[in-house]
Specification:
This protein is mainly α and 117 residues long. The protein contains 3 helices and no strands. Helix 2 runs antiparallel to helix 3.
Length: 117
């Protein structure tokens, strides 16, 4: 394995770990944090699955099946876009729910300050 490949793989792994850490660290509530942990796990599974398929089809199968590797590049980007859009919508819904819950708790905790009895 050459130096460029080692640097690329190391940079990818470190970048993914840093991205997952920051995404989980910057959550506001427990539901949001649980969602981000699940999302990070599914993202890792998806990327590793794609890489495994890529190598299985590209290297393990005989030469006539090698063009099937290109089909993976046709399927992967639309699947990735759908997963990202769905994840963003779900994350936004969870964040809105938790923001409303926090606002309701603050309204209940603070009595009316007008002084009327």
């Amino acid at each position: 394995m050459n130096t460029g490949a080692i640097i690329g793989i190391t940079g990818g792994v470190v970048g993914a770990a840093l991205g997952m850490y920051c995404s989980i660290k910057n959550t506001q509530g427990s539901k949001e944090r649980a969602f981000m942990v699940r999302s990070a796990i599914w993202c890792c599974v998806g990327v590793l699955g794609f890489i495994a398929l890529f190598f299985a089809v590209g290297f393990a199968l005989p030469h006539p099946y090698e063009p099937w590797v290109h089909l993976l590049w046709v399927v992967f980007p639309p699947a990735l876009i759908i997963a990202i859009v769905t994840g963003i919508r779900h994350h936004r819904r969870i964040r809105d729910e938790e923001t409303q819950d926090i606002a309701q708790e603050q309204n209940v905790a603070q009595p009316d300050a007008s002084g009327d009895s």
